[in-house]
Write a structure and sequence with these properties.
The complex is a heterotrimer of chains A (381), B (238) and C (288). With 381 residues, chain A is mainly α. Chain A is 68% helix and 1% strand. Chain A has a domain of 245 residues. In chain A, strands 1-2 form a two-stranded antiparallel sheet. In chain A, a hairpin with a 2-residue loop joins β1 and β2. In chain A, α4 runs antiparallel to α5. Helix content of chain B is 37%, strand content 25%. In chain B, the strands form two sheets. Chain B has a six-stranded mixed β-sheet with strand order 6-7-8-3-9-10, sandwiched between helices. Chain C has a two-stranded antiparallel sheet with strand order 1-2. The radius of gyration of chain C is 19 Å and the shape is globular. Classes of the chains: A mainly alpha (381), B alpha/beta (238), C mainly alpha (288). Chains in contact: A-B, A-C. Chains A and C meet through α6, α11 and α13 of A and α4, α9 and α11 of C.
Amino acid sequence: MKVLNEPSARLQSPGPLQRFSQSWKSAALTLAIGLVLLFCLPRVLDDFTLVQATIYVVMSILAVSLGFIWGYGGILCFGQSAFFGLGAYTYAIAVTNLGDSTVPFVLAIVVPAVFAAALGYIIFYGRLSDVYMGVITLTVTLILFNLINSTAGPEWKIGVAPLGGFNGIPNIAPLNMPGNVDDVIGPRGLFELSLGMLLLVYLLLRALLAVKLGRVIVASKENEQRVLLLGYDARAYKLFTFVLGAAIAGLAGCLYANWGAFTSPTIFGLAQSAQIIIWVIVGGLGTLVGPIVGCVAIQWLTSQIGTQQVINSNLVLGAILVIFVLLVPKGIVPGCGSVGAAMAARMRRRPVVADQHKLHKPSDEIEANTLAIDSHRETSQ
Amino acid sequence: MTPLLETRNLNVRFGGVHATRDVNFSLAEAELRCVIGPNGAGKSTFFKLLTGQVKPTSGHILFRGQDISGMRPHHPGRLGIGIKTQVPSLFNGLSVWENVWLAARRINTPRQAERVTRATLERVGMLAYREATVGLLAHGQRQWVELAVVIAADPPLILLDEPAAGMSDAEVARTAELIRDINRQHALVVVEHDMSFIRMIAKKVTVLHQGAIIKEDTPDRVMSDPLIQQIYLGKKPQ
Amino acid sequence: MDLAAVILIQVLYAIASLVVISSGLAVIFGMMKVINLAHGEFMMLGAYATIEAIRVGINLWIAIFVVAPLAVGVIGIVLERIFIRHLYGRMVDTMLATWGLSLLLIGVVTSIAGNTTAGVSAPLGNFTIGAYSVSAYTLVIIAVGVVLALALRWVLLHTSLGLIARGTTQNPKMADALGINPGVVYSVTFAVGAALSGLAGGLLAPLTGVVPTMGGAFIAKAFITVIAGGPAILVGLISASALFGTINQIATFVTTPVLGEVALLVAAIIMLRLLPQGITGRFFKRSL
């Protein structure tokens, strides 16, 4: 249920950007842009630059996973990195044991999902509130960090794959064509696969949000009580959302393990968790493209800062998070939408909320009674 | 004939308060009953017992003969009980259409849901507002949207808690008309304290006092009962 | 017999550690429902303040018990006035903003002090119980834990500040009507909480390596102890610390320190599932 003191977001009639982002047109546009990038970039960029680009794409998939469960499902998971890490580690361990990468690829998606199902059951069927969700997910990712970090000795292995402890797992075998272990994916192939997966995930989520399942998920975030009164088991829908987000994060983890051929326990750490949240906040909640924008922006910023020694990256990231929470709570993409709408309105010299007035039928004798019973609502919750 | 809704020896205690006392309540199919009583009579508690928000200390609640005491929050909706709480509970950030569609879609195919949503909105007179964001509507309009949401899935029983609260006289009359119309095919339990509104809709009224039912009769007979007058108005019985 | 004594000391030490580490967060969360994720960094600042004070010649005990709390208390007031006060009532936003603050503080300290580990050695040496050697500093921590709990109780019950704080946080509007400025109360409460975190950091400086990132190890434990404790500040703090401290130590004895940590975290999850309102949400309700 919603936390008591959380003020309801200031309601506005859906602006042009919001209506666009919810229509099939934005999906088509995004898909088109994505396909163009998919076909052109590998032809234009050299392998080295493609590798740089790939990590942006992989992290974008991770960002979208949190952006979906948080922005649409209202689930603020402080430990999305747990599923990311589980995906990477599962792939690494499975591919070392099995050789062919097809099953490991699938496992990297399934294992985090199963884990999320168990964890989600505890959280959602235990009627725990938002704050506790944050505590528990944070705790879980730390548990994983602690556990994996301590497995440095040679006795710690699953099958033939040593867990490596704080050293991590190096030399992770890359994905191969299913059935042919020698036909391994190269930088160009990994880029194409990653971007392809990003587009696939995007389309899948857009489709989901257009049908009953997605609408109920969004409605649950809006007003869980009414969803329950309508006869929907909100817990099941939240669990589904959580598990789907974990599966997508696991996919990103698998691709990440391929990208660096390496994974280590820091993937479960607080720093990684914080980063994902920062991407989504900066990019904006409520769209799927927002988190991608936030991720690319922050990743780029971080890499720029990393090349110089003057300013510490933690400092900048922390400052960005604080500034965005305080001043730009909606994030870049929705924020741009508001600014754009305001500017457009000023140019047209008409009030922004013009549409609403058209709907008041003058023939009705009923006065608009604007005495909303908001205070009543607050005291009764 | 099995009553549609029935409570047997229903009791609820909170700490030292005996909020509901031995309530035996019975409602037939397509019957409309108003539940009234002064402040503190236990109307809200009784309503919450029926919706499952409050669990009884003892006694049973039966819907079509099936014991539904202690159900999970999403069961009443699933069983065919439509609920409108005292504080309006809608998806304020979504459109009027979407609110009703979500209600209709649970038991209808997508195409049927479109039809049912349109018909229901037309019935409550809010079809023109279908694209409006619910949270921005006037209070009375939101109440009607909520009525639409409640009836969209065609529930045999509808529970309404103060459906006319905060409305102007014209809006109250319109709401009464809507409820009478809904009553043609659905049973309703309406918790209210506006007597003029009750007269517009009810044939039978249940009066609660200190958690127990003290009278069940037509609105006129209830209002002319001296004991009821004393309880409400402090008049001494003649 | 000796082993039993040693185990008892270690368990008490684990409980006292949790009390000391979590007290600052407990005061801030319990009083103001603010989840200060920069709590670990407040501890880190306390540790650095202690180290610096010792470096310029201040006595170790004064550095720990005076300099650290004072320094971090002041920093706390400044941060509260600038950032935190805009976010009261928005629990999730405060979590995010204080997470940002924690990164910011790490960044600032790293820029100033660098990444290398500083430290002081634990004072007072060891004493022996039978065949076992126990650090005397352990007893200091236990003593501080007890004193802290008693001090908190005294402030809450017997001072006007404690009464005002309890009243304000339960009903800010009422406090307004009484002529008390809730803003001032919140500032002072936040400062007290920050000071307590600073003290914890100072106390831990002789036990752990002092690095800018040291806070991370404590925030999770403090966080879950406070949340599991429930709404009553003091009783919640003590009961949750007792529960988790005991589980942690026993698990450590039976297995390894790492699994001891994991046991604590798992216990927290189970506990929250069983008692979603925390311990004092179900038991000892309406206690301090």
